[in-house]
Write a structure and sequence with these properties.
The complex is a heterodimer of chains A (113) and B (112). In chain A, the strands form 2 sheets. In chain A, strands 2, 4, 5, 6, 9, 10 and 11 form a 7-stranded mixed β-sheet that branches. A 4-stranded antiparallel β-sheet of chain A has the order 1-3-8-7, with no helix packed on it. Chain A is globular, with a radius of gyration of 13 Å. Chain A is built from no helices and 11 strands. Chain B is mainly beta and 112 residues long. In chain B, strands 2, 5, 6, 10, 11 and 12 form a 6-stranded mixed β-sheet that branches. In chain B, a hairpin with a 6-residue loop joins strand 10 and strand 11. Chain B is globular, with a radius of gyration of 13 Å. The chains are: A mainly beta (113), B mainly beta (112). Chains A and B meet through strand 5 and strand 10 of A and strand 5, strand 6 and strand 11 of B.
């Protein structure tokens, strides 16, 4: 069974640009959640999607958005990038929801210059 | 607000020694509790989880954790540490309809 796949693995963007990250969950999983990991703030929850609906949202500005498709694949978009958005972005999939058990991808390392 | 604390930022143990990583949580009700491990440059791997029932939970790689409701704690233990256990360990808590919260992590170093 394939694991959670995140693409791309590495990304370099310029301030002010926007970026889209992709996450393919484990087959059959309906929940996809996103996290930002930085040395200063640690792991922070961005949002969770379940069956194409946003179920939970963390405390991030509106520049951070996401969506989930009917095949459960999810994308996360960050607009008007700031230097502070440089981070490892992790995606996790779960059969029923992140409050049960989550399987993580290897992440996308975003660097904003 | 929900929170998870891990009092120890960095712990160093000798190979073969026992290990205990501390985790405390603050939540409206008893949440689901998890321990994850992250090796450098990698995603997170679930070690074990507590939903309900037996308060001593067995996980992978020889780890176990004990849930203590009276202390709002969920400490991770291993009787004999291996060099390959060196990594960052995260305690996390979640509940339906609540945000999933991670602790700040504890970095484990293992001396040969």
């Amino acid at each position: 069974k394939a694991g959670v796949t995140q693409t791309p693995r590495y990304l370099i963007k310029t301030r002010g640009q926007q970026v889209t990250l992709s996450c393919s969950p484990i087959s059959g999983h309906r929940s996809v959640s996103w996290y930002q990991q930085t040395p200063g703030q640690g792991l922070q929850f961005l949002f969770e999607y379940f069956s194409e609906t946003q179920r939970n949202k963390g405390n991030f500005p509106g520049r951070f958005s996401g969506r989930q498709f009917s095949n459960s694949r999810s994308e996360m978009n960050v607009s008007t990038l700031e230097l502070g958005d440089s981070a490892l972005y992790l995606c996790a999939s779960s059969p029923q929801g992140i409050d049960t058990e989550a399987f993580f991808g290897q992440g996308t390392r975003l660097t904003v210059v | 607000a929900q929170s998870v604390t891990q009092p120890d930022i960095h712990i160093t143990v000798s190979e073969g020694a026992s290990l205990e990583l501390r985790c405390n949580y603050s939540y409206g009700a008893t949440p689901y509790l998890f321990w994850y491990v992250q090796s450098p440059g990698q995603g997170l791997q679930l070690l074990l989880k507590y939903f309900s029932g037996d308060t001593l939970v067995q996980g992978i790689k020889g780890f176990e954790a004990e849930f203590k409701r009276s202390q709002s704690s969920f400490n991770l233990r291993k009787p004999s540490v291996h060099w390959s256990d060196a990594a960052e360990y995260f305690c996390a808590a979640g509940a339906y309809g609540q945000n999933f919260v991670f602790g700040p992590g504890t970095r484990l170093s293992v001396l040969p």
